[in-house]
Amino acid sequence: MRSVIVLASAAASLAIIGACASSEDATPQAPEQPPPVTIPDAGAGDAADVPDVDVPDTRLPDCSSAGWCITGFPDEDLVFRDIAPFEDVAFAIGESRTEGLKVLEWNKSTNAWEYIDDGTQNMAGIGTFAGRIYAPNADEVYFTVGPSRVYHGKRSSTPGSAWTWTSQSLPDGIGGHTDDHGNPLESGSRLPIATLGVWGTGADDVYAYYSNTIFHRDPVDGTFAPVYVADDLEAADEHIFFASVHGSGPDDVWFVGARARTLTNCPLVVRKSAAGWDRVADGVAASSAVSPCAQRPGTLFIGSGRGGWLVDIAPSSTTEYVAVHNRTNRGALEGVYLTTIRVTESGYSSEQSLLPLKSANSAAPKVATSLWRGNDETWFTAWGLVVRRSDDGTLAISTIARAGAPVNAPFYRIRGTSNQNLWAIGARHAYHKTTP
């Protein structure tokens, strides 16, 4: 008899404006999950094993009413950090208290995840936290682990063939960094942000970022070399961090993050186009949280002087991108703002609109952790929550609840290839949606 571990949890179904989560007074913490459900393989059993009374099936349904379905994975304490999906497979990076930093592959045929890494990322001095993952195709994967290492894996197209892995450390663009400089706390949520990542437009066009530096991979010798360094720091406690990247092609790649000081953060956007590199948005960071950001000449002033990070970005078209800004004011979270950035004939323009997001737990940070854009809709993840926004501005919960209680855990990433192939992942959760 074989078995798989299946996620047994539930999610919130809550209103966005003027409504509360169903766990009003709970304190955010790692969710206590019920024991894993064991599902035996189907097959003819011995007649003596069949009870002569009817036993009700109390197992939760596999999918929510909105079509978010559980997937099986090898250790129930996995915290999924990032995902790279295709139609029939997906790749993810995560962390486990029992297994350490791990990389996994999901197959549609089994609806289950399995480990594919070689374990070296958990050797002393190599991996301290999980970064990002990128896959140009179903037989090639890049991932990052802190403090500064990039892994590259390949396998032959033969089904069941083994993965081979190589890795290299990225150089520090500013001396004296510690592990925290690759995994700082985001000001609004106080959740760690992996400022060590990897992404590409294809197998021969792969970027990595670490702290204040963007690297590009040489497709011939496989090495990553710096192509953009944001070294215009103005104080001893100031750093520039990149937190996410997206683009529409080799000549249209956008990086977002923050110019950060001890008490303040200013939104940051850098773009690579056919003409070269542009500092699209930036600010002058103050030493006080009272007035966190001033306008920097020649760049967009996102947030009207408010602080906070741009934590994720996605294209609406080749001339318009949307980013999520967890905006702070005087050191406290002010709200989540959808930031639209447009490429115009005269340069760049931007505007912001408030996203009145709640969380599945009133004591948890009310921030957006990621976004994904597709089919004229924008999707967001938050604490125990998935939200979809149509182009007319309407917000709606996409219910991940399989029972009445909310999921009391953060979601870190939403990614997909279409609205019929979406993933929402986080602490002990990896939900897959294939319905409209």
Architecture overview:
With 436 residues, this protein is mostly beta strands. The protein has 2 domains: 1-24 and 59-117 and 368-436, no CATH class; 170-355, no CATH class. 0% of the residues lie in helices and 47% in strands. The chain is built from no helices and 30 strands. The protein has strands at 68-69, 79-85, 89-96, 100-107, 112-115, 129-137, 140-146, 149-154, 164-169, 196-202, 205-210, 213-217, 224-229, 239-249, 252-260, 265-273, 276-281, 283-285, 293-295, 307-317, 320-329, 332-344, 347-355, 370-374, 377-382, 385-390, 395-397, 411-418, 421-426, 429-433. Strands 1-30-29-28 form a 4-stranded antiparallel beta sheet, with no helix packed on it. Strands 2-3-4-5 form a 4-stranded antiparallel beta sheet, with no helix packed on it. It starts with 67 loop residues before the first strand and ends with a strand. The relative contact order is 0.16.
